[in-house]
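Re: that chain you flagged

S.,

Sorry for the slow reply, it's been a week of failed gels. I finally had a moment to sit down with the sequence you sent. For the record, here it is as I used it:
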Amino acid sequence: MKEVWLTTAYFGPISYYRVIPGAGILHLEACENYEKQSWRNRCRILAANGVMELSIPVLKGRSQNQPIRDIRIDYHQDWQKLHYKSIESAYRHSPFYEFLIDDLSGFWSRKEEFLFDYNLKITETLLGLLKNQIQVCLTDRFFEPGHYGEMDFRYRIHPKKKESTGETPVPYHQVFSDRFGFVPDLSILDWIFNSFRT
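Prediction finished late last night. Pasting the structure tokens below so you have them in one place:
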């Protein structure tokens, strides 16, 4: 049975979800230390003024030595409202926004304490929407990058790495493509709102 290894991600990029089909087990890295400026607490969408980065603020999570399972979400600022309004503004005219938003809107009102738990629920919901029957497992110990071989994408899919999976992006219609052309590897939200197929 094919297996794939990934880190946790906040509405991860399309490349993150492209490595999952065909695998029977998805192993989510639960024993690493938190990594700043990664997909763990941010995503990118395409808005009217171009690519927009949405980031979840975290409490005492700026240390690279803090376990990912211990990272708490900071609710002192109303980032959920900002994210929801930004996503609504960017995608309300996309073909599948009205069809899918009810399945996702709760994530911008739910108050999860830990980032890992929040992302896990998002990932499970997205896999359900994508009708992917993959089994999700959490790692119980940490191994260095590459330990699991070619299906170890934990540190290959990263905002600062352009060609992390070796796959060529497949263009699809985007709401603002008339302004910016095709922008690859945005959040999975961009793909599902623009090109979702049941």
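What I noticed first: Helices lie at 14-18, 79-91, 97-104, 115-129, 177-180, 188-195.

Talk soon,
D.
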